[in-house]
Amino acid sequence: MPENKLTDKHLRTLKPTDTEQLLGDGGGLWVRALPKGKGGAINFYYRFQIDGKERRYNCGSYPQTSLAKARELRNAARNLVKKGIDPVQQDANDRAARSAAQAMESMEKTVSELLEDWKRVYLSAHRKDGGTAVIDAMNRDVIPTIGSMKAKDVRLPHIVKVIDRILERDARRTANQTLSLMRQMFRHGMGRGIVETDPTLALTRKQAGGKETPVERNLTFQEITELHQKCAQAGLSNRIQAAIWLLLATGARVGELSKALWAHIDEDAQTWTIPATNSKNNREHLIHLSPFAMTQIATLKKVKCSDYLFAGRDTKKPISEKLISKAIRDRIRSVPLKRRTPKTGSLVLAGGEWSPHDLRRTMASRMGDLGVEPHIIERCLNHTQQGIVGVYQRQEYLAARKEAFHVWGNALNQLTQNNALKASK
């Protein structure tokens, strides 16, 4: 059958009429001129048969597509038909592949954007602080190194680089924590189709910060007396001193104490209720306040200026838990920081350095020395029983807990009065 029957002149002189016009170029290529009422466009198409069905393949529109180009497209489509391939379906498949590739490209995120996605989807809903602490840690140690990289391009050497920079400042525990956070973030990315693999997978904690030894620091009875003597000489405000003694008397965490409201304190019943929203394990906790603890409450009441026991500079907000920790840490470090207290080393005890969380461990350890049963201590700390015991034993032991807090409070009262105290055997 003859081909290439048309010329460019045929197309230039083809004008739309009231009816559709068809011109054959041969070889299955047709020119279709739409009527005036439908816009008068001039289109090329290749008509062919495959699997016993007639099909039409679009070869462009004139004059955007020249006659020569339309013939090239017809020839390419015809070659596919000879191979048993439907060019119309092939085009559809190619468009779908391009669309998928573009969609994937639009989903490509940098590590910084992956972190934001993790926060938006998971951290904001599952972390009590909305992910603030995680974001701060990642912005400090991860984002400066790999934040601008495409998340899908991150490989093990990049992860090692992040960890090595942390190890340069000998922060081994931070290195392990950062590795764990990166692993969680990349696994979130896998679940969201942002990355295909987890680049942290081959790196273990042993190869990052190394094995961590459990923190065991707790104050002896003698060190508690020593702490009382040194607090007065360390330049601490009365409310920070009260915070130290309340942490020791109640076993509460710094964050739980810093968020405490006066409404949580029942002075008549001598109790402090930590709401679930303030506790680490999202479990409401009742603490019985011993006379020793109530003395600290009285100290705070003298400077009450807010709904919070420890108000921040903005009295509508609580004090930052970091401020309490910094006040203690600044008096334990050996070298003073710029614009901070010069009383470095003033709170170092006979057993060495200590932290606010060590006070919680101290309460648990010394309660045991005073004869309080372990399961009662666990309840005083608001620990959740594990295993089969946690499933079936749900009692709160309120009376025993009250007695434990009072025994401990009496011991603290003696120790801070410089009286010797003997542990129960």
Task: Give an overview of the whole structure.
The chain is built from 17 helices and 7 strands. It is elongated, with a radius of gyration of 37 Å. Helix content is 47%, strand content 9%. The protein has a 4-stranded antiparallel sheet with strand order 1-2-3-4. Strands 5-6-7 form a 3-stranded antiparallel sheet. With 425 residues, the protein is of the alpha+beta class. It starts with 7 loop residues before the first helix and ends in a 9-residue tail after the last helix. The model is unreliable at 387-394 (pLDDT under 50). A hairpin with an 8-residue loop joins strand 2 and strand 3 (42-50).
Which key features would you list for this structure?
425 residues, alpha+beta, Double Stranded RNA Binding Domain, DNA polymerase, domain 1, hpI Integrase, Chain A, 3 domains, four-stranded antiparallel sheet, three-stranded antiparallel sheet, 17 helices
> Order of SSEs, N→C?
HEEEEHHHHHHHHHHEEEHHHHHH
The largest β sheet comes out as: 4 strands, antiparallel
What is the percentage of strand-forming residues?
5-15%
Got a strand count? 7
- Indicate the overall shape: elongated
- By CATH, the architecture of the largest domain is named Orthogonal Bundle
Roughly what is the average pLDDT, rounded to an integer?
89
- Number of helical segments? 17
* CATH superfamily (homologous) name of the largest domain: Intergrase catalytic core
Class computed from helices, strands and strand pairing? alpha+beta
* C-alpha-based Rg, rounded: 37 Å
**Distance between the first and last residues' Cα:** 111 Å
Strand order of the largest sheet: 1-2-3-4
List segments where confidence is low: pLDDT < 50 over at least 5 consecutive residues. 387-394
CATH class bucket of the largest domain: Mainly Alpha
Helix content: 40-55%
- What is CATH's topology name of the largest domain? hpI Integrase, Chain A
